[in-house]
């Protein structure tokens, strides 16, 4: 896999790309250029991101996993100084072991009873961390890289937070993953047992915090996110020795992903490699489940060949057909049966268990474009455009009938689709 850098409407973005330059069908290019839906959805996204960095109208928090997916658009349409400060605020809550919180909110405004984290460096805010996740550290590093690519504000790396620079704190965050969330046996990072990229484990009624009932597990999403973060980190620093060190770590992690998580016979990623047993009954074949989101992130990380990328896309479309879902934003197929999660509302085809999320579907479209699959990218993008236009905005997720659910005006979906449209327009 070869990496290259290319511009998307003034925004520089590192993406996985093949060495083969695929010709663009001119009839397809004309169709795409004349499709007013792209302009309509892009304009809606720009309007939404003009103000506010919280995840959506149903969320008061600024979440780093969400901000990471719309920060480029936010820099284009919003207040760059506020975005810079938002990134620094995450470091103000960084713990001594290097870990990064999920998000933060003005004190006294949260509607959820998290076990809040406080910092004298950010006295007006309360932070929280869903410890079943292992993507917060990687998401922050990726977001900083995107911010710098858009704004060219490299001074952020030298900004000092409690005696350590942002560059040093990014490395602290990565070292947290290698010391506190690393399996020596597999050479991969672990988290709680969740559905693909989700944040709900099956052993608890709420399910967002690791506890004595948790089953630590390795999955593709967390590890692919870490690979991308290491790529971004070495692109931002100048120290040759550190570059060499982290590239070696990236290469070994990538090799271990292919060894332990890629099922060559099924041409898919294994949902979980368990460190202390599975929370599911032995009769349940979890490896029958296909993870759409983690696969898209693995492509971004450069972990699949051209042939595997196309096969993955075809499998996603087959899953959509079998499920009767609106788009490849479908999280997983088949879904986890009812009753496997103590969280009683996580039933089949609801939320992360088979809901349709343009937040991740849009990222798969980005990778199809990056690898020259323009027809497939347009095919995949089209139903997402229709959903946004029909429902008048960006909802968090959609059910099998394409009806909006979850938070309204979800900025993650807006950012992912806007970027997909931007790079599509740049190619055409």
From TrEMBL:
Top-rank lineage group of the source organism: Bacteria
Designated name of the protein: Glycosyl hydrolase 36 catalytic domain-containing protein
Organism expressing this protein natively: Pinibacter aurantiacus
